[in-house]
Amino acid sequence: MTGAMNPEQSIRDEAVGWALRMREPDFADWDGFTAWLEIDPAHSAAYDEVQFALGEADAALELLPDAAAEPAYVAAANDNPPGWFASRRGWLGGAIAASLVLAITSVLWFSPRGEQLYATAPGETRLIALADGSTVTLAGGSRIAIEGEREARLEAGQALFTIRHQTANPFVLTAGEDRLVDAGTVFDVRLAGSRVDLTVAEGAVIVNPKGQNLMVTAGGRAVRQAGGRYSLASVDPQAVGEWSRGRISFESASLAEIAAELSRATGRRFTSADSTTKLSGSIALDEVRTDPRALEALLGVKVRAAGEDWVLEAE
After folding, report:
1. Around Cβ 76, how many Cβ atoms within 10 Å?
2. Which of 3, 175, 12 is nearest to 109 (CA)?
3. pLDDT band at 32, cuts 50/70/90?
4. Separation between Cα atoms, residue 117 and residue 106, nearest integer Å
5. What is the pLDDT of residues 51-102, one digit of tens each?
6. Are 179 and 282 in a shared domain?
7. Same structural domain, 202 and 81
8. CATH number of the domain to which 273 belongs
9. Least confident of 8-12, 119-123, 125-129
């Protein structure tokens, strides 16, 4: 998903195009490639970044086991239920292949501590393939640091985690002040300020093992409230991470909160000064991205243009 493209993103996308074309056996446009490099020093820097990320993606692809070898691989390194990896192998292979185009157009750099840092612009999603076959899908307007193979830190926004569970070496996510330890497979985390919103589709996640030691199982939701306490609720497991499939849902959210979420998810700028009106619903993002006024029928609100902004107001 991509919103308005900035110049840096455009250069990265051009670099991706050149890098992928140069992998074709019959590539011959060396003069065109040289001319593109000479236009701007930023082109060469972007191309180097893309080639590095392609190498990382190639390495991840090599780690995918063959179907015939899967039982030994699972027995040695993973304690998910039998058949888990097989049932997802086709999806993982396609996802990692997609990462050749998606992850490399993310903002990827290395911190002084050696972390891999990723960020997305509003309206974008990015797939990050981890070395063990796990994946992280990063929502728009989000930032995450990958700290090795089995640890990450969500700095802002939202991400969907599909993790190969290992009892002896669990995946650990830091979100704000909280530590979330994977005890299952698929979970979604949203971080907004100090508010952490965790939903679990498969398996379980343990919240702060050395503190609350709260286990959230499939179909569960835990939201961090003021003071560090968590409230618990139930969710439809099928709806977990639905933003990655082009839909967002909200329950008793203010128009201001909905506007902020729509801005992050679509790349369009929505605003609202109304923090009193509360609404619940589900929105298909493509329809709103194409025509923001579609929200009038979907939510029963007024939508008006104000320059480049779209203002949401109660009727």
Report:
1. 7
2. 12
3. confident
4. 10
5. 666 665 555 555 544 443 433 333 334 455 544 444 443 444 434 444 444 4
6. no
7. yes
8. 3.55.50.30
9. 8-12
Backbone phi, psi, residue 55, to 5°: -60, -40
Give the number of other Cβ atoms within 10 Å of residue 226's Cβ.
7
Q: What is the rounded average pLDDT of the residues 126-137?
A: 88
Q: Sign (positive/negative) of CA torsion 37, 41, 43, 47?
A: positive
User: Full-prediction pTM beyond 0.90?
Assistant: no
78 shares a domain with 100: yes
Q: Is the same domain home to 65 and 193?
A: yes
